[in-house]
Amino acid sequence: MAVDINIIESLNLFEDFSHAELEEIASLMRRIRVTEGEAITRRGDPAHTIFIILSGNFMVFFKEGRSYTLHNKGDIIGLSTVAIPFYYTGTAVALSDGVVLSMPGQELLRFIESNPALSGKIMKKINQIISARLPFVTGRC
């Protein structure tokens, strides 16, 4: 079952999408409930799914004890599905019960490749997020 388009259009990542594009992206997503303590990504595993937070609190753990928390609607986990190194660089654990949208990374890449007008906008947003998080991953502030 497709995710409600109203949920998708409220997310920053998809703010420039037409109704038809929102319908297509919504058809690729699943709404998943997560429970406190559940790991949705594991550092070192191949990155195959991207997650968008709708509710809940998550901590992403990296090497050498580095971490950050995500708790805002629209925060993204698993960006390595569409960016080098294509494996999860952190382990994301739910700190509370919550709800996320999940989408196979290959489907997001296919969507981006088939929509040149949007690909630059989406990748720019993804690169901004990656750049802001890079110090937590590398330890270089």
Can you offer a commentary on this structure?
With 141 residues, this protein is α+β, with helices and mostly antiparallel strands. It is built from four helices and eight strands. It has helices spanning 5-9, 19-27, 105-114, 116-138; strands at residues 30-34, 39-41, 49-55, 58-61, 67-70, 76-77, 91-94, 98-104. A four-stranded antiparallel β-sheet has the order 1-8-3-6. The chain has a four-stranded antiparallel β-sheet with strand order 2-7-4-5, with no helix packed on it. Strand 4 (58-61) and strand 5 (67-70) form a beta hairpin. Helix 3 crosses helix 4 (116-138). The longest helix has 23 residues, at 116-138. The N and C termini lie far apart (42 Å). The mean pLDDT is 87.
The chain-level structural class is alpha+beta
Low-confidence sequence ranges: none
Tell me the overall shape: globular
Strand order of the largest sheet: 1-8-3-6
- List SSEs in N-to-C order: HHEEEEEEEEHH
Portion of residues in beta strands equals 25-35%
Radius of gyration: 14 Å
Record field, number of beta strands: 8
| Nearest-integer average pLDDT | 87
Main β-sheet, in a few words? 4 strands, antiparallel
User: How far apart lie the N and C ends?
Assistant: 42 Å
Number of helical stretches of at least 4 residues:
4
Assign a percent range to the helix content.
25-40%
